[in-house]
Give the backbone structure.
Amino acid sequence: RAQMDAMLERLHAAAAGGDPVAVRDVAVIELLYASALRVSELTGLGVRDLDLAARTVRVLGKGAKEREVPFGAPAARAIDDYLARARPALATEASGDALLLGSRGGRLGTRTVYELVARELGELPGTGPAGPHALRHTAATHLLDGGADLRIVQELLGHASLATTQ
């Protein structure tokens, strides 16, 4: 938890200046951690997939299975900030409905997310493999440690098998 907090503090400090990419990066990490999404699910999101009032996102997961995933207040604030300050600055005619945009206005790519997470986790002592999947595992572990039911975590992660979640 302390490592996640340190990473998020660093990202929020970088975004305070209003750089659109830094603001987007906060939204990426907050949403990945809050919702335990796969990178492909995150980068595939459209603005229309968000329900900010309900704090949920509609995700197309493996096997083209759709699920609705909740996220908390910190992620909601980061997404609100991104939609207000960063997405309009990054958007081009080619952006379409893509929620998360790259620096040239296209849909954010999985490689960029991998590089972001590796860079951020690489700066933290005692972290294991530095990829987006590490955030997915961290989120699931924190939910279970907090008393969440294993079947609920299975559903959140979009796992077909309970054994995969365990």
